[in-house]
Amino acid sequence: MRRIQLPLLPQVQVPFSDRARALAQVEELARRGMRAPLVVFGLEGCGKSAWLRQSAEILRELGYDVIYVDLVYRSYLPYTDVESVAGKLREAAASIPGAESAKLALLVVDLARELVRLGKKRVAVLVDEAFQRIGLSKAAVYVKSLLSLIEYPPRSYEHIVAIATTSEGLTRSEIGRHRWADLAPMWNMPREGFIELYEQVNWKEGGYPPASHRRTRGSSQEETPTCSRSSPKRNGPPRNSLEEWSASGSSSTS
């Protein structure tokens, strides 16, 4: 799997770190498909956007036509060879004012539907920070449109993956009440992830390379760090978090 590069500091980019279990769940969704959209709730800065962008890369590698859009920063990724669909997304992202981002959100669903209509068998639609721009009062209706894409496609398909993320929690009860989506929280990465991220930044800024790049002289074994750390036991997020989602099942109940 190709790790995407993420801007962390001015002129400093680091590869996507941690979230191995959450990414494995995306691979599982890609292989078995979805019966309902997945809505991921998490505080700002916990890593939802990075995870969703890395998920787009995974889905592309697994043969999906992917439409990704971040409604806050108006970034997008059209991983498809259908130029008419990619062109419509580029044009809309450039021309629709930020105050009217709801139009862009609706267009993404329409473009995914168009890909299915054109015979694409594996389609993914990923919408980052979905509800802030759409309006919280319309969040449940938007989720229903994602569900309709899965349940009432214009043509038969193999798998559809539909994921939306949001930094607010007010819509959780409304979406869960209708049971139109599976819900999962995302928490900050564990300590091991922060250590990995710190080592990547430290190396790029002229410090020692991360442990995975240190080798003993004349040996292929990793060198033991001078100041060794015992690997802390991970407490992990509570049940029904994104990383426990596939094991605990749907959390769509209110």
Describe what this molecule looks like in 3D:
The two termini are about 35 Å apart. The longest helix has 17 residues, at about 100-115. The strands form two sheets. This protein has a six-stranded mixed beta sheet, with helices on both faces. Residues about 215-240 and about 245-254 have low confidence and may be disordered. It contains nine helices and eight strands. The chain is about 40% helix and about 20% strand. The chain is of the alpha/beta class. The chain has a domain at about 35-190: 3-Layer(aba) Sandwich (Rossmann fold).
The geometry reads as: globular
Determine and state the CATH class of the domain at 33-191. Answer: Alpha Beta
Strand composition percent: 15-25%
- Uncertain segments are 214-240, 244-254
Could you tell me the radius of gyration in angstroms? 20 Å
Mean pLDDT across residues = 76
Alpha-carbon distance between the termini? 35 Å
> Can you give the helix content as a percent range?
25-40%
Taking the sheet with the most strands, its summary is: 6 strands, mixed
H/E order of the elements? EEHEHEEHHEHHEHEHH
The helix/strand class is alpha/beta
Q: Strand tally, please?
A: 8
CATH topology call of the domain at 33-191: Rossmann fold
- The CATH architecture term of the domain at 33-191 is 3-Layer(aba) Sandwich
Task: Provide a count of the helices.
Answer: 9
Q: What do we call the CATH homologous superfamily of the domain at 33-191?
A: P-loop containing nucleotide triphosphate hydrolases
Strand order of the largest sheet: 5-4-6-7-3-8
